[in-house]
Please model this.
Amino acid sequence: MAAYAPERFPMPTPARIRVAYALCDVFAEGRRVREDWNLGLSSEDAGLAQAILGLCLRRWGRLNAWYRPKLDNPSRGVPVGTQVALCIGLAQLAWLPGVASHAAVDESVKLASDSEIGFPPHRGLVNAILRSAAKDRERLANELGSLPSELDRSSFTEKLLSAALQDQGTTDNINALWGKLQRPPRPSFVVLNGEPPSELAPDSQFPQGWRLLPDAPFPSRWLGSGTGMVQDVSSQALMAFDWPPEKNRPTRILDVCAAPGGKTTLLVRRWPDARITALEQNQRRAQRMRENLAARRAKAEIVVAEAATWLHACGQSFDLILIDAPCSASGTIQKHPELNWVYRHQDIARMALIQESLLDAAVPRLAQDGLLVYSVCSWFPEEGVGHIPRLVSKYPRLRPAPIWQKSPCGTGGGHLFRPDPMSWEGEGFQGFALATPAPTAPQP
Model:
């Protein structure tokens, strides 16, 4: 076997460097992958980087389990830099046949040699393990595929799957749902004006929405024109609620935690004559929302403030209040597989308290005959429908509002929005609707 020669490996390629930094963020720092992690890469490099990162995040457990028995002392801890280099190399050798074996091996040794993202003392170890694996790539893929899928699931994810399935959480269903979530999702879109580009086709479950065709290029130019936007089909279905009667159209609407502005855009399109306020705490996200709304020619008043504080002080009432609350984002794990590794269950209790404070601040601002629509991209009931008993007990004027009678999502319906995780091809979502009906006039 050829020995490692430093002069042969001066610098890893940009795509693999970005992947290594993203993995270090997750496994060394416990942080989510940064939004701009692949900014500036060419389209070809970005595609390669996305493929490698997705494979490593989704199969991190089995990748590490495969090489550990080959170490001199498997019980010893392995530096994150070594784990990153080995997993990047193994993922390419096993599942990316278009990547040459020498490139997968050599580039990973370069990463191990980098003192910032690798562990230079182990560059020879990385070289030896990957060169051995490269001798029979098909066997490597088969061996990795035969390892238990549970290796790729954290304790947080085990709880997430049980929460998603509720009383249907059999072992077979848990494994089936996990297998589904391991497949990268196809982006979904809203057509705002004109005809959609040829890269899109109607969504099979929610025909008002549009999906990117397999192997089609991402329609960046079309999105930049402001005639369409990216929005998960679960959000689209949530916003397709049936309310109110035409004789009672809302005139004052509040969108809480509104950035990046997708739901605000749909509110403006549906009720263009209403006064719509979009409330967002984060200045950077608010600026992004401002740019998005301007590109889409959607007019709304943008307020940058902490939501609960502003609601307590605003002194206004609203006919419709939409709260897409901060949450664990557990329902987005298919799109953000790093959540499997960086989240812990205690985050749920903290998020539920934040959500309670938002709801308690919003309900007093709801006008008579008003509607409160609450949603989270989470499967944990504590963050969604679990809030209802406390709310209706504390605020007796609230009543369930059956606005999703024709929901396409498979479960829920009426005043609840709960897509079926086994059949619905969208993010995990929960929502509910509560109204403040006008008092019934006494009978003469």
About this structure: The chain has three domains: 6-152, 188-230, 233-435. Confidence is low (pLDDT under 50) at residues 1-9.
